[in-house]
Amino acid sequence: MNKYETVFILTPVLSDEQMKETVAKFTKLLTDKGAEIVNEETWGLKKMAYAIQKKSTGFYCLVEFNAEPEVIKTLETAFRRDEKVIRFQTVKLDKYAAAYAEKRRNKLSHKEEA
């Protein structure tokens, strides 16, 4: 299994509930295909550097997971089919990126405890 990180931007016209349902749909797709979700973060509504589909903001979401390479093709097909997704990018993490992601996760968890 490889370590992956995917960031996707959802359209800003969604309500918080619709946004959470959409994120849950993609994480369920991953777990159904045998992937293990390591971390899931919702960064909230952010301003984009440039307009995409005449929208200047979007809901940013990050999901870190361990999966087989075949799962990525299925996930990205689901992203393309969903009109709520404006942009997405999936990256395979090497050992340095995985170590950095873990360090960042630990830092975030210590902030939440304080």
Question: What does this molecule look like?
Answer:
The chain has 114 residues and is α+β, with helices and mostly antiparallel strands. It has three helices and four strands. It has a four-stranded antiparallel beta sheet, covered by helices on one side. The radius of gyration is 14 Å and the shape is globular.
- Ends: how far apart? 34 Å
Helix content range of the residues, please? 40-55%
Radius of gyration: 14 Å
Q: How many strand units?
A: 4
- State which percent range the strand residues make up: 35-45%
**Alpha-beta classification:** alpha+beta
Shape: globular
Strand order of the largest sheet: 2-3-1-4
What is the number of helices? 3
- Name the helix and strand elements from N-terminus to C-terminus, one letter apiece: EHEEHEH
Largest sheet: 4 strands, antiparallel
Kindly state the mean pLDDT as a whole number?
91
Uncertain runs = none
Which key phrases capture this entry?
about 110 residues; alpha+beta; four-stranded antiparallel β-sheet; 4 strands; globular
Concise overview:
By secondary structure, this protein is of the alpha+beta class. The chain is 43% helix and 41% strand. The protein has helices spanning 16-32, 69-81, 95-113, and strands at 2-10, 36-52, 55-67, 85-92.
